[in-house]
Amino acid sequence: MITVLRIGHRISRDKRITTHVALVARAFGASKIIIDTKDKKIEDTIYSINKRFGGNFEIESGVVTKKIINNWKGTIVHLTMYGEELNKSIKKIDKSKDMLIIVGAEKVRPLIYEKADFNISIGNQPHSEVSALAIFLDKFTKGLWQKKKFNGKLEILPTDKGKRVISKDS
Amino acid sequence: MITVLRIGHRISRDKRITTHVALVARAFGASKIIIDTKDKKIEDTIYSINKRFGGNFEIESGVVTKKIINNWKGTIVHLTMYGEELNKSIKKIDKSKDMLIIVGAEKVRPLIYEKADFNISIGNQPHSEVSALAIFLDKFTKGLWQKKKFNGKLEILPTDKGKRVISKDS
Which residue on chain A is closest to B27 by alpha carbon? Predict the structure, then answer.
């Protein structure tokens, strides 16, 4: 089971980025996202996505992150542009354990680097926590996130032109 | 040469998402981003990143996109959750041609679907244009974006704990 922990979330500045982080977590195979700052609006957005597109992805916000990190039974991965190369680190992760993936916004406290079992970088150029999480989960799941069935009311069928959407009434 | 075209950019709503799209374009091997709406602040952010972290990634904003699309000599890829599966489409793209990758914000006009040579989806669940672009460029370049040298004043060296940064004065 994969949980994403989003730290340093500020409602006004980060609302869209954190929403995108949550959507990536959901689409790329995580089971849950935890956000440090309480943000009802993001919770509602994600539940509305679940309702339409399916799955049982969980979201919890307004959480004391120190407790989550200290009590975590499993592996802690921290995604940071300062970390060890993805290709080197990913092989070392024990896939049988639950994983907590920490993604920060702007500056991250030194404590996080210490508590993480793995500090991992997705390249060493600045880009985005959204892309870092997506690339990490894509590599970690070996692309299997694409096979996940969400069984939602709405299902999008791949097509070369236009849109093909199946809408199932419940 | 890869150019990213960001359409539907609204300054107040999208400033951080579009900045992240631009940073992903830069980090994952594109040469340039074009943004439909003029946004001096994002331009400044990207030039400041270039100055510190190197490379000659270009940014242009406030552009008539219709002209860009109609005059494009090369391949046009449109990333959309409604598109054809990535794994199927990516093989068909001629790598010798210049590529324009269109990424929208919210709703995209039907014209874009028609003008694109390839409408490609990165999974068929909603996530983010930031992650879609990153995954596409990672697959398209077969991970080679990680090898690109930026030769910036600041260079980050991968490390398992803490931060290792080389700062070169020019």
Answer: A125
* Rounded CA separation A14/A42 (Å): 10
CA-to-CA separations, B159 to A87, A110, A132, B126, in angstroms, rounded: 13, 14, 17, 33
- Write out pLDDT tens, residues A80-139: 999 999 999 999 999 999 999 999 987 899 999 999 999 999 999 999 999 999 999 999
Q: Cα–Cα distance between B124 and B133 in angstroms, integer?
A: 14
Q: Which token pair is B49?
A: 């990143």
CA distance B114 to B117: 8
Q: What residue has token string 């920060």?
A: A104
List C-alpha distances in Å: A2 to A99, B104, B146. 5, 29, 25
Residue B52 is inside which H or E element, if any? helix B40-53
* ipTM, 2 dp: 0.96
CATH number at residue A43: 3.40.1280.10
The helix or strand, by DSSP H or E, that contains position A80, with its residue range, turns out to be: strand A75-85
Domain that holds residue B73: 2-167
Per the structure, how many domains does chain B have?
Answer: 1
Residue of A nearest to B144 (CA): A123
The span from the CA of B14 to the CA of B33, in Å, is 15
Of B84, B127, B164, the CB nearest to A23: B127
Interface size, chain A vs chain B, as Cβ–Cβ contacts under 8 Å: 152
* Rounded (5°) CA angle A38-A44-A47: 120
Q: Is B124 exposed, middle or buried (0-12, 13-18, 19+ CB in 10 A)?
A: buried
Written as six digits, the tokens of A123 are: 């390249």
- Residue B98 amino acid letter: D
C-alpha–C-alpha distance, residues A128 and A114, integer Å: 22
